[in-house]
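Interim report, section 4.2 (structural modelling).
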Amino acid sequence: MIANFGLAALWFAAALAILQMVAAGLSIRRDNPVLAGLVRPAAIVQGLLAAAAFGALIALFWRTDLSVKLVAMNSHSAKPLLYKIAGTWGNHEGSMLLWVTIMGLAGAFVALVERRLTERAMLATLGAQAFVSIGFYAFLLVASNPFERLNPAPPEGLGLNPLLQDPGLAFHPPTLYFGYVGLSIAFSFAVGALITREVSPLFARTMRPWVLGAWIFLTLGITAGSYWAYYELGWGGWWFWDPVENASLMPWLAATALLHSVSVLASRNALRAWTVMLGVVAFSMSMIGTFLVRSGILTSVHAFAVDPTRGTFILVLLAIYIGGALLLFALRAATVTEGQRFTVTSREGALVCNNVMLTATLGIVLIGTLYPLLAEAMGNKVSVGPPYFNPMSAMFVLPMLVVMGVGPLLRWRRDKLVRIGRRLIAPAFFSAGGMIFMLVKGASALPALGMMVAAGLLVASLMPLSGRRLRMVTLPLWGMVLAHFGVAVALFGMAADSAFTKERLIAARIGQTTDVGPWKVELQTIMPVAGPNWTALEGALAATYQGDHTVILRTQSRSFWAPFQQTNESALHTRWNGQLYVVLGDQVEGGRWQLRLWWKPFVTLIWLGGVLIALGGLLALTGRVASDLRRLVAVNMIAYRRKRQGR
Amino acid sequence: MSDTSVPLVKTSGLTLWLPLALFSGFVALVLVGLLRPASREVQSAMIGKPLPAFSLKPAIPDIPGLAHTNFVGGKPRLLNIFASWCVPCAAEAPQLEALRRSGIEIDGVAIRDTQADLRLFFARNGNPYSRIGADNVSAVQFAIGSSGVPESFIVDGRGIIRYQHIGDIRPEQVEIILARLKEAEH
Amino acid sequence: MIRLLFAATLLLVAVPTTAQDKLPPAPYAYRQLDDPQQEDSAKALMDTLRCLQCQGQAISDSDAPIAGDMRNQVRLRIAQGESPEAIRAWLVERYGSYVSYKPHIGLQTWPLFVAPAAFVALAALVLRKRFGKGDSA
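Predicted structure of the assembly:
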């Protein structure tokens, strides 16, 4: 019953998307108020129907309706309720339904509130959004129907991968999806602008909050995913340059570049074609990333539903959407002039530098991810990992971050470094201090350079506030300062973690004490414990920091039974200056237990930085929306007064 | 991913087409990858090279252990990497038995195994091996470039590795192995 | 269909329980070298070697038995005074460059290193025209 409802809602939503696209297309070519009037309502109802279908699937997982194949394959009646619900998007079909739901809702939201652009540009944008949606509806209905039934229903489901049964992971994918799919709005705005040839500061101001919103979600999603990998995989690593991680990083890099070029376009009417290009690229990266993950074409620890038919289907969608948008770009962009000029030492100059560096980094991540595939096509097997990605990306990111420290202090159009020289003394001083500290400690080149840049940036990022009355500082400026400060904080964490982590692997007896960094850790007891769908051995460890107070950490080696799998649950103790990370392994000869211990100085700053970056985005978004609303109210007031006077 | 038109400067049309060209390259590459799915197998790069020096203790007391010096007797031999805990290894046992009966000398390297388990395994599946070396830390496996169990290597009479078969030997593959063994005689 | 489902269940249950060997991990799979300097260079090397059976993990991040045996190999060889790059070369000689996450610059891999440089050159070329005098607008 619920399944039938969900499937019907999905079909209706797809039909409305077609209507939306056709009506928009026809009324752009020839003015047709009746057809044009259909577009916004169609977008809104389409979004609601997609959401209803997704709601139906959640209900099916909640009730563990095993007559639905997807539920039977991915859920189990003995699973905690949170993971039953999270199981909705913990699989291929469910996550694609989440994808179209977000896409539909985002389109509906745009249709509902966006009134700034000309009606023609809006029609083109909503038409493009519907065009993209149609492909994904087709993909769901034809190749990955989430509501497929089983007859007869099996007595029990297969369960969810235990690694995914974790509160962090329950919310990480939806967050990331809001980011991925939110970028589709930017894509549609860009395509709409190319169709109508309306690329203006107004276009940039309209697009900016949508890009910001998607970017905030992407930032949070990547941060959460990294933290999840850190504590769940049990080896203390937080970034592996795995294809799936790269797939989330690439749209983020493109969106970050877009965010900055959009503000050049909004305030200075420059970088017009380039901004449109980035709008296309950002969502293209989301789609390419999803494709690479879903087709099973790249080897990854996260290997999702590996299925060549689905891979081919998504590839066709990619070719149509990305290829189409790029073709449109090639044909139309020549008529979009690039706009105002500026010197190298100007705010725009710094932002262009940021854009080039970010795109180069994106290029490195993309080629590094794809290269094994290219080599395979030529008959070689090659692996590309951290020894490539780390130095190559640092080569672009670190200089970019130096520019990031200086850029916000520069004036638009033209400026001289001499003018801001005095405000750079303190950051330079801190940079030198950071470098000397790392050299004294004997850190290797990359962490040392990272720390040097981070130390300088911690101060430089606050400099735009100097000499201003803090109460007069606008929200977007606060947002920029906070986000840039967050980058410095995260980089500080990365450099400290990679330079100063202490690792200790031992086979310990009960009662044995061992050192790791400033900690003394004693293995106290090993006890069996039981959870809702697992049993575990729990090790209790007493950890003492520099002879100070003692904390107890409990780490588990869990055995899940549906499906059968063993996981090691790490235990963490966080201090202001770092984290103690302990993992219980297997029992070995002589009644000893494998223990893995790490002391990771300042590692938490990595994710704190990520959260600060997202918060900065949120401040900027709030400021932009508030000022847009104020402008809207003012415009309406004027119109209202005129109307009254005219009477 | 390149930038484009410039005011007052004639737009170079080629740059505008560059993103599309790059994307087409990506699609072509990925299409090749989709049509010819990459094998998950890791081929040994030791084919054509001499067997590295090693000497393994017997895995069970009544059958002799294995060393590289056992492979220079003038006749090709089959070196089988296996383990009692590996399911496909049990599945390939009848094929190894068939090879033994056609006069092939098969030597085993038991990966991370115990005597008790091996005895149980042979009681169930038969024992085709002339010699079995115990490789408890996978050292010989690494030395010859093997990445899993079961794998079979053909070593010719002068101790040169000539052929690698990854995975269990299926009934229809016995002929291929025999042909390769014949080739290795020269 | 339903039978297939059950077969899949059985497989999921059967594989991990039987495909697990009973031997304890190799001596240096989960044990560090006593000399911290040697351990540091072993760790740095292990971070860049690919586990042969796990999908895309370094041997220093994996609980697979074969990864443990590889760590054992690496630590033993480091302890005997072999240089990390010699150990890498030894493995590459056996498994090809697949086993190493560190692509060496060579005939097969030059585009990896040329592409970023080419990109920056291209960007500089295009941007050269963009920067005018600030007041020409």
